[in-house]
Specification:
Elements (H helix, E strand, L loop, with lengths): L6 H26 L10 H55 L6 H24 L1 E2 L2 E2 L9 E5 L7 E5 L11 H8 L3 H51 L3 H25 L2 H14 L1
Antiparallel strand pairs: 1-2, 3-4
Helix pairs in contact: 1-6, 2-3, 2-5, 3-4, 4-5
Length: about 280
Amino acid sequence: MRLMQNMSSQRIYRQYQKSLVNQSKALKNISSGEKFTKAGEAPNEIAKSERMRLQIRGLQMAQRNVQDGISMMQTADSALDSMTNTIQRVRELLVQAGNGSNSPEDKETILNEVKQMIAGYDDIAKNSEFNGVPLFEPQNGINSVKMQLGANAYENTEIKFYNLRAGNLNLDEIVGFVEKDEFGKALVKSDSVIENLSNVRSEYGALDNMFENCFEGLGEFELVTQAAESAIRDTDIAEEMMELTKNNILVDSGNAMMVQSNKLPQEILRILENVKSR
């Protein structure tokens, strides 16, 4: 037994300090929900986690981009449907105009409706836009845009814009053919326009399908990446609660043991007193 250095008490105190540190760490992890909050605690894990978080945010933004692409294609498809129906009505009128029993008045009435339908078609083509971007009247020489589809560089696709205005498609030729009773040429022209519209609509439909598949894929990839990042950084609350409980017991027992170990010098004094009294 030593009087000057209470080694037992010092050892107990050292273990007590460790238990306090572990107790504090467990409390911090539980309250923050993260295993570590400073780079110094786990440099490699922090670096991995930050890279994954960067990827997750990129994936989330890419999903918003793809949603915009889907909305743009659906807007274009709706407009193209109306434009196609308009030209189909023009074609019906052309077939009707080819009836040899029509009076000049009948022919004039049909011609006026054809003109109105072409004007209506042009209004749709002129006014169809998405978020201020004209869909069928490219401006400033811009005939396509890039749509970012992923979180990384060059993960994009091209959306082409086509000038489908009546003037660009020379729809006035239909009126001229009707005025000259060249109904066959008018029908050929209307069929050509309908085919052109169908081709553009088919291309945009394929893009719409690709965007929807891409959106689902991005969502799945985001979930997988979030799960991986969570495994690195997030606290297992059940495990931390067990660690906290363990360290609470160790702190309490450390306190009790220090009280007992601090009595050792007093025991030495009593022994010395007994020796002196003899």
